[in-house]
Design brief:
This protein is mainly α. The chain is built from 3 helices and 2 strands. It has a domain of about 60 residues. It has a two-stranded antiparallel ribbon. A hairpin with a 5-residue loop joins strand 1 and strand 2. The longest helix has about 80 residues.
């Protein structure tokens, strides 16, 4: 009995450790952030559709889409409502959400490409500048050695003519 309890504790510790590793993976955190941002984005798009797009559409077609319905009278006298206006509004909501997401992704891709090109230009400029500075430094060192040799030769020539 004592051995079984110890084994259960080890299994629990193993499960807890495994769960902690699972939670600490970057993918889980990224996914959680994505879900939260997605929910906030959904709320923004819903407000856009409900507060701006649908009232404008209602003005154009002179009716509220959600009020569009068909009533069917059954044989037993009960009425069944077919709410096809809410279905049309849901389809429009989907199209508007898809359009907004498409536009956002398109804009982000353009920004990402622009930043990537700018990064490449900066890297090339830095690389060429470093190369130019390096060449200049190495070139000046060579020039300095040449000047030093020329001065020594002149001094040697002057000493030999003086004698």
């Amino acid at each position: 009995m004592f051995g079984k309890k110890r084994k259960d504790k080890k299994e629990r510790k193993g499960l807890i450790k495994e769960f902690a590793e699972f939670i600490n993976r970057g993918n889980i955190v990224d996914m959680a952030v994505g879900v939260i941002v997605g929910a906030a984005f959904k709320e923004i798009v819903n407000r856009l559709v409900d507060s701006i797009v649908m009232p404008i559409l209602g003005l154009i077609i002179k009716t509220d889409l959600t009020s569009l319905k068909t009533e069917v009278l059954q044989a037993d006298g009960t009425v069944v409502e077919i709410l096809w206006g809410t279905f049309i509004q849901a389809c429009l909501d989907f199209l508007i959400i898809a359009l907004v997401i498409f536009a956002a992704v398109k804009i982000f891709n353009v920004i990402r490409k622009t930043l990537q090109k700018a990064k490449e230009v900066v890297e090339k400029t830095v690389e060429s500048t470093v190369d130019a500075i390096s060449d200049k430094i190495h070139g000046e060192e060579k020039d300095a050695e040449v000047v030093e040799v020329e001065v020594k030769e002149e001094v040697t020539e002057n000493e030999s003519t003086e004698k």
